[in-house]
Amino acid sequence: MLEHPEYLKHRKWMNHALELARVAGDAGEVPVGAVIVDMNNQLVAVGENRKERDQDPTAHAEIMAIRAASQVLQSWRLHQCTLYVNLEPCPMCAGAIVHARLGKLVYGVDDTKTGAIRTVINIPDHPASNHRLKVVGGILESDCREQLQNWFATQRQQK
């Protein structure tokens, strides 16, 4: 059975996010990677978790990618862009996504502890949100979940 072209595109970029997450995990960070593409499906910016390396609590993958994309595009308004991230964004990142006016968010696996897109709270659809965001969840969900679970299991074994 042939897969829908939109799903194939999502898989391509989620695989890229997973590779960035692997790099972050190898560096001792929680393995989260983010990719931003434009309306022509061209790569604009990437980010990976850097909290430990930068000693910066705001250095989440999504924030790093949003900052980089804004610089590349010379605009904080990213309404024609899509953000791919392997883990559902936290409240801080969900707020940044809304404020950046991203056109679409595609994420891999729900975060049952701090997910702020659909799982624990829903920032984009909250009445206080001034931007409506298209959201696609569950892309390469098993791969995303497995990568995170394996990383956390390894961290527990090392302690």
Automatic annotation (TrEMBL):
Any GO BP: tRNA wobble adenosine to inosine editing
CMP/dCMP-type deaminase domain sequence ranges: 8-120
Record-annotated active site: 62
Binding site for Zn(2+): 60, 90, 93
EC number(s) stated in the UniProt entry for this protein: 3.5.4.33
Zinc among keywords: yes
UniProt xrefs under Gene3D superfamilies: Cytidine Deaminase, domain 2
Protein task: Catalyzes the deamination of adenosine to inosine at the wobble position 34 of tRNA(Arg2).
Protein name as it appears in the record: tRNA-specific adenosine deaminase
Phylogenetic placement of the source organism: Bacteria, Bacillati, Cyanobacteriota, Cyanophyceae, Nostocales
